[in-house]
Amino acid sequence: MLATSPAFKENATQALANAGLQKALTRTRPQHPAKRAAAVAALPEFEQLRDIGRDIKNHTIAHLDFYLETWAGNVERAGGKVHWCSTADDARAAVLEICNRVNAKTVTKGKSMISEELGINEHLEQHGITPVETDLGEYILQLRHEPPSHIIGPAFHLNREDWEESFRKAHTDLPADRVFHERRDIMSEARNELRAKFLAADVGITGANFLIAETGSSVIVTNEGNGDLTQTLPRVHIVLASIEKMVPTLEDATSLLRLLARSATGQDFSVYTTFSTGIRRPGDLDGPEEYHVVLVDNGRSAMVGTEFQDMLRCIRCSACMNHCPVYFSVGGHSYGWVYPGPMGAVLTPSLIGIDKAGHLPNASTFCGKCESVCPVKIPLPMLMRHWREREFERHLTPKAVRSNLALWAWFARRPGLYRVATRAAAAMLGWMGRRKGRFHSLPLAGGWTDGRDLPAPEGDTFFARYAREQRAGRV
């Protein structure tokens, strides 16, 4: 997927002016936080479970080499094969080699963000293989030739009329009087189209929410059941997974599953939670003849031992973006690559470079909501600060920003002068804005006033007021 992250500001400007996107974001904004809050309130041990989830992931990352080797051995004992892939090119080549060897013409796919990261669909199409997205949201995006805008609700940015328009364009035999008043109408139309494709597929590709070292299993979590059909009907099942999806035991996986759905959709558990272990065994009613796991590093091992290691705890629940005011202002496509929102603001620079993704760690109000709802307690604001520091150290920030920060730092290192200067500035701006109470424009503040008014200061500075309260014995 081509990264447009360097154009984040331009992307965001267009998103703010997109009436359809703003309608979709406004409609969905309150839903996920409310559902999560209700699910958390119904589970008294949720905070304790967050600590357990954090510790499981920390332990796994600290011993990742051991658990990867243990898991790979168990995959092979169950009749599967592991393809170790250091780069995206390696992973694409592994998937293509499997498909070519079995003479695959059609591949069905379950929703997988790692496949978006690798650009699997485009790679297969370039080599004459037809990929078919079977997740409802991913299917409509494939018809529209659009990338996902959210990691669990890929079509987050669309409205009902967008679905109907896309179906009428793509499904040429659709009756003119067919209506799409409700979600079930949309699901029925997609199901009718996909049923034959499930049966005809030569290979099925899924992602993995977790890989279990103890058993060599992969786990997928869905609400539609398409993932089960994708991995059991074709002769060949390919799992795409990144190395940080590893957990030691079945018990660890179930602990994390208790966190995942509650944090993602407010469900106790998703409708389908499916464990896959190797090939079809004698007596099994279904399952693949071949089971392959394409295990992807693609920059993740370089994060181990750095200040960004905590990001490898992420279980892709999307709670951070579901509570992020920036995400719900500009949508997922503005971030310009696979992973949007706060988790994307940390992970994307790690994978494609801070030189390409430097705007993303700056696209945050630092309200801290993302960290407070993260099921595995990733300190996302702190990690974004680390990226800002890297950006500054490498002189990637604009010269004007660096100059203004240097000027502020000069004053900040001289507290007495700083207090005098801020009191004088507050008094002057307060006097200038006394009539309207705000500024429509202000020299050296165009970055703010081009998009909104700047409130005029009221009263004295915080430092001055705090000093008065101290002297009066009130603080």
UniProtKB/TrEMBL annotation:
Per the record's keyword annotation, is Iron included, yes or no? yes
- Carries keyword Transcription regulation? no
The GO terms this record gives for MF are: 4 iron, 4 sulfur cluster binding; metal ion binding
Identify the Pfam families for this entry: Fer4_8 (PF13183), LUD_dom (PF02589), LutB_C (PF11870)
Q: Name one GO biological process term.
A: lactate metabolic process
InterPro entries in alphabetical order: 4Fe4S_Fe-S-bd (IPR017896), 4Fe4S_Fe_S_CS (IPR017900), FTHF_cligase-like_sf (IPR024185), LUD_dom (IPR003741), LutB/LldF (IPR004452), LutB_C (IPR024569), NagB/RpiA_transferase-like (IPR037171)
- Superkingdom as given in the UniProt entry: Bacteria
Assigned keywords, A-Z: 4Fe-4S, Iron, Iron-sulfur, Metal-binding
- Which segments constitute the 4Fe-4S ferredoxin-type domain? 305-333
Which PANTHER family is this protein grouped with?
A: LACTATE UTILIZATION PROTEIN B (PTHR47153:SF2)
Name the record gives this protein? LutB/LldF family L-lactate oxidation iron-sulfur protein
